[in-house]
Amino acid sequence: MYGNGVTLPGGTVTFLFTDVEGSTRLLQELGDDYGQVVADHRRLLREVFQTAGGNEVDTQGDAFFYSFPRARDAVRAAVEGQRALGSHEWPRGTEVRVRMGLHTGEPTVGDEGYVGLDVVRAARICSAGHGGQILVSETTRALLGNDLPDGVNVRALGRQNLKDVQYEHVYELSLEESGERFPPLREHDAGAAMEQRFEDRINRYVESRLEAALDPHPGKQLQFAAGGLLTLVLVAAAIVAVIFLVKLVL
Fold it and tell me: Which residues face 113 on adjacent strands?
């Protein structure tokens, strides 16, 4: 994933993830012109991020993954990146909106790049946002202090439920010239995810029971039919009860 040959800084680093919102829709609307959108998007952000001292860790399609030795530089890069995207003239006058997420941590640097939950946390913060939005973790916000780029305000969005990393206090960096108010963040539905996992387990269990019932040995068929039915009923009842409790809590 990180096979770009770049020597990545270790210690405390700030990750910056970006992603174009609605890229599939843009591809459908623009057709061949979408290639120019991707090229312009990459050029604009690379110029800004590298000028701010960023290291390109990875790029896939219309998404970037950068690391910065200092949180302030990463934030400045995100702000200037949004401004560069907003002032650019895109093909056919279309609007290209990019979500950005930042988190600061002390990941391990392995042969294939950065390793650890800090990478996951930064990526999940990015994916929770909307096009044109800059989101930062509580750690990155603390390192910023009052040293914000000119024309930027910070707004606390509270504790958010993010996939794989559970809860994180997220902050939004808003550009004064934009004045845009974004919808609520796209939170991970823990209750639905748990319900889906339980359903998957039931399906796997039923499949295993059916396979056992089709076993060519008659003695095993009878054994599985009796024990399997009772177990299936008990498991299903327990799962329904747990799902009900989860929904009550949530």
Answer: 110
On whether the CB atoms of residues 133 and 169 are closer than 8 A, the answer is no
For residues 71 and 32, state if they share a domain: yes
Q: Flag whether 3 is in a domain.
A: no
Give the tens place of pLDDT for each residue, 51-93.
999 999 999 888 999 999 999 999 999 999 999 999 999 999 9
In a shared domain, residues 170 and 223: no
**Which residues constitute the domain of residue 139?**
13-175
Q: What is the mean pLDDT of each run of 10 residues along the chain (250 residues)?
A: 64 96 94 94 97 94 94 98 96 94 94 90 95 97 94 94 86 88 72 47 54 58 51 52 47
Token duo for residue 169: 């206090």
Q: How far apart are CA 13 and CA 95, in angstroms?
A: 32
One domain for residues 65 and 104: yes
Q: What is the pTM of this model?
A: 0.73
Half-sphere exposure of 19 (CA within 13 A, CB side): 16
What three-state secondary structure class fits 4?
coil
- Contact (Cβ atoms closer than 8 angstroms) between residue 14 and residue 140: yes
Give domain status of residue 7, yes or no: no
Using DSSP bridges, classify how beta strands 63-68 and 152-162 pair: parallel, antiparallel or unpaired.
unpaired
104, part of any domain: yes
Length of the chain: 250
Q: Is 110 inside any structural domain? A: yes
